[in-house]
Structures are given as structure tokens and as C-alpha cells.
Design goal:
- It is a single chain.
- The chain has 16 helices and 19 strands.
- About 35% of the residues lie in helices and about 25% in strands.
- A hairpin with a 2-residue loop joins strand 17 and strand 18.
- Strands 1, 2, 3, 4, 5, 16, 17, 18 and 19 form a nine-stranded mixed sheet that branches.
- With about 450 residues, it is of the alpha/beta class.
- The radius of gyration is 21 Å and the shape is globular.
- It folds into two domains: about 80 residues, Urease, subunit C, domain 1; about 325 residues, Metal-dependent hydrolases (TIM Barrel), CATH 3.20.20.
- Bound molecules: manganese (II) ion.
- The site of manganese (II) ion has 4 residues, from loops.
- The site of manganese (II) ion (MN) has 4 residues, from loops.
């Protein structure tokens, strides 16, 4: 007799789809098979049963230039849970002079007691750290503390690493068995283009895209790939949004670079022409910027083919008021989608015939768990954490700020009806969403130390 048995669902894993029962004991998946018996039975007939979503790129209550991103650890993780995501990975951003482990402890303190689901943290290596031997010497301790992935930037003042600094940091990370997760854009050149556009009197949000050309995004991916190769450091490129960058990722693989990459719903579903150049263009400013329909076709194809590995959100919401700025260079970057990710990729991927159900699960759960070292997540098999989503593929849901649990006063997907939504969600064997209602508790999620496969 098991604690919980989920009966008669179509179990979807990266290996296939089959009808079976899934049994849970305590926090762990105990068995999958037929006629399993449980003290509590959850009927999943006509539903999919999949591993809880893993979103490896979120910014909850992130401080930026005197503002804080709109979703707290509370609202953001409740929203994630309601959308079928049971693990998120956020960021540690050490301040100048602060050690990585101090910054990690501080960020954990902000999250612990507040999160509804499990979380991990990437360790950021900003500009000042690359210059300091003592900081890079802390990389092994960060890996030991469960932060084996290191965020680096090829853009933004205070964050940007030039190629020499990037190489040194990659060498340190590679030698410690870590992985670099990278914001790849040719920052200094974009800074010039942005300043020139402003001088010419261009203030509209579309200039955000026009001053961040796709070709310069791709050259950054190219440079980073070769530096990673030189450093013998695995590289994961964040938020790939254009055809040119996909091509560089594919070409790097041919050159034996250990490279993986993600894209996000905004790049798959929104365009510069329709959104940045639309009536509320300022809302859609994010970096890299939205591109075009051709790019979206390339991204979907790359997801299907395995050239891209993951769909994350880069969830970083700001309110309408915060997004309302005098010119495009002052708009805080980022859009929300932490809650709708799984359903958006199902609706536009699986329902539209672009992705198989297995591939959907792979890019939303299995791959991000494996690449980020979440060794007990992203898979439905005995011994793994009982993070499980019961997903009703026929549930028609209209996305709206009225029904989302996200805190921002807008969503790019307002009024959009998707077919397929999570009905019930379990986190380590606890039912935290039941019939689309959050039933969990803040503080029940915990920090998950991550260890990469060697
Ligand atoms: Mn980000």
C-alpha cells in the first residue's frame, strides 16, 4: 500500500507515452505500473502525468537600479506551481567586495521560508569578480555549496566580462566541474548604437530591437563558444532568440564545443513588429530583444531537432508604471511567463504539431534538470522526487492577470486561450495544486544543492 497512487494517466517521459499508475511514498516516486494500491488515490484518466516543470532562469524580487522585480519569492513560486513548475533556478548576485558564499547565504535567507516550491541558485560572476583572483578562487566553494552554474554577461555595465575576463572565469569554472550560463550579446557595441540612436532623437521602444542587431548577438555566441572551448568549460547560452544565434550554437557543436542553449516563450510567441512596435511597446522590452516570425520558425525547429535544449522563461516582470519611461534605454528589461510556460509550449508546440509530447516534457523538465544538475528532478522514475503534474490536455484556459497568480498588472498573453492546463501538481509528494487551486504553503519549498554530472 503506497501513500499516493495517481491512477490511469497517460504518463509522459522523454522516452515515451504510456498509460500506467504512478505510486508515491513520502517525498519519492516509488513505482510505476498497473493496479497499484494507495491510501490516497488521484484519478488522472484523460490526463497527462508528467514530471514537474523545471524553469532554470527566473528573476524573483531582483533588485535593479533602485527597483525590485514584481514577483516576490512568494508570488513567483505560487504562480510557478499553479502553472506546473515545481523547481525554479534564480540567481545570487554578489556585491562588490562580498564573497560568493556570503552572497549565497543572503539570497537563501531571502527565499527560505517564502518559497512554495524547490529552488536552486546560479552564482553570478560580475565584472569586479573576474578582475579579482580571490573571487575566482571561491568558485570551487560555490560548486561545493550546490551552485555549480555560473552566470556571466557579455553586456551591461558592472556585469560585463571582456573576453580576457570571460576566459579566466571560464577556466576557473571548467576546472571546478561547473558550467557557465551566459547572457550573450556584444554589449559595448550595442551601447554605442543605443547612444547614437538617442542622439538622433529615436526614443520609441522599437529602437531597443534596432540597436541590438541579431548579427551582433550571434557574434557574441561565437566568441563565447571559442572561449569555452579554450577553457574546457561547458557552456549554456541563455535566451537564444534569433536565427543567427541558433546557427552559431549548431556550428559550435560541429566544432566540438560543449554547448547547450535555451529559448523562452517570448521569443517563440511575440515579435518586435507586433509587440515592441505596438501600442504598449515599452512592456515588451527585454534583452535580447524580440525578433520576427522567421526567427520563431527557426527556434521551434531547433527545439524539435535538439539544437536547442530547453524552454525557460527569464521571468522578470515589472509593472506598467515601471515600464513607462521617457525613452527606450531607460525601460527596465524583462517580461513575465513563469505561470503559463508549460501550457504555452504545449499549446503552440504540441497542439500545433511542432513538438512531440515527449519533446515538450524534455525541454520543460528533463533537460533543464539534467543540464543544471538537479539529479532528483525532471524524470518520472522510482527514486526521483515526487514532483508530478497532472495536466488536462483539453482544458481551455484564457490567460489573464485576473486568473494568473503572477503579481504584475499585465501579461503578454492577456486574453489568449490555450488548450491544456495543469489540474493538480505535487511537490515532493505533497499536493500543492488541486483542481487549479493552490493548496500548498509558503516555506515548504527548499534550496536544492545541484551537482553536475562529471
Ligand atoms: Mn535573465
Amino acid at each position: 500500500m503506497h501513500d499516493i497512487v495517481i491512477k490511469n494517466g497517460h504518463i509522459i517521459t522523454s522516452d515515451g507515452v504510456f498509460i500506467a499508475d504512478l505510486a508515491i511514498d513520502g517525498e519519492t516516486i516509488a513505482a510505476m505500473g498497473l493496479d497499484l494500491k494507495g491510501r490516497r488515490v488521484i484519478d488522472a484518466s484523460e490526463c497527462y502525468v508528467l514530471p514537474g516543470g523545471v524553469d532554470p532562469h527566473v528573476h524573483l524580487q531582483m533588485a535593479l537600479a533602485g527597483r525590485v522585480s514584481t514577483d516576490s519569492f512568494e508570488s513567483g513560486t505560487v504562480a510557478a506551481a499553479c502553472g506546473g513548475t515545481t523547481t525554479v533556478i534564480d540567481f545570487v548576485e554578489p556585491k562588490p567586495g562580498q564573497s560568493m558564499l556570503e552572497a549565497l547565504a543572503q539570497r537563501q535567507e531571502e527565499a527560505d521560508g517564502h518559497v512554495a516550491i524547490d529552488y536552486g541558485l546560479h552564482m553570478s560572476i560580475p565584472t569586479w569578480h573576474a578582475a579579482a583572483d580571490e573571487r575566482l578562487a571561491e568558485v570551487p566553494a560555490s560548486v561545493d555549496a550546490g551552485c555549480a552554474t555560473f552566470k556571466m554577461y557579455q553586456a551591461y555595465d558592472g556585469m560585463i566580462l571582456d573576453d580576457v575576463s570571460l576566459l579566466r572565469a571560464m577556466q576557473a569554472v571548467g576546472a571546478s566541474g561547473g558550467r557557465v550560463v551566459l547572457h550573450s550579446e556584444t554589449g559595448p557595441v550595442l551601447d554605442l548604437l543605443r547612444a547614437q540612436a538617442l542622439e538622433d532623437g529615436h526614443i520609441e521602444p522599437i529602437w531597443h530591437e534596432r540597436t541590438r542587431p541579431a548579427r551582433l548577438e550571434a557574434t557574441a555566441v561565437h566568441r563565447a563558444s571559442e572561449l569555452a572551448y579554450q577553457a574546457e568549460c561547458p557552456l549554456y547560452v541563455f535566451h537564444v532568440g534569433c536565427t543567427e544565434s541558433v546557427a552559431e550554437v549548431v556550428a559550435a557543436k560541429v566544432r566540438d564545443v560543449e554547448i547547450h542553449a535555451e529559448t523562452c516563450p517570448q521569443y517563440l510567441l511575440l515579435t518586435a513588429h507586433d509587440h515592441l512596435d505596438g501600442p504598449d511597446g515599452q512592456l515588451y522590452v527585454c534583452a535580447p530583444p524580440l525578433r520576427d516570425h522567421d526567427d520563431q520558425d527557426a527556434l521551434w525547429q531547433a527545439l524539435a531537432d535538439g539544437d536547442l535544449d530547453v524552454v525557460s522563461t527569464d521571468h522578470c516582470p515589472w509593472t506598467r508604471a515601471e515600464k513607462d519611461q521617457p525613452d527606450f534605454t531607460q525601460i527596465p528589461g524583462g517580461v513575465p511567463s513563469i505561470e503559463a510556460r508549460l501550457s504555452l509550449v504545449h499549446h503552440f508546440g504540441v497542439n500545433e504539431g511542432r513538438l512531440t509530447p515527449e519533446r515538450w516534457v524534455e525541454v520543460c523538465a528533463t533537460n533543464p534538470a539534467r543540464l543544471m544538475g538537479l539529479t532528483r528532478k525532471g524524470v518520472l522514475a522510482p527514486g526521483y522526487d515526487a514532483d508530478v503534474v497532472i495536466f488536462d490536455p483539453l482544458r481551455a484556459k484564457t490567460i489573464s492577470t485576473d486568473t494568473l497568480h503572477e503579481a504584475a498588472d499585465w501579461t503578454p498573453y492577456e486574453g489568449l486561450t490555450v488548450e491544456g492546463w495543469p489540474r493538480t501538481v505535487l511537490s515532493r509528494g505533497r499536493v500543492i495544486v488541486e483542481n487549479e487551486r493552490f493548496m500548498g504553503a509558503l516555506g515548504e519549498g527548499r534550496f536544492v544543492p545541484r551537482a553536475l554530472e562529471s
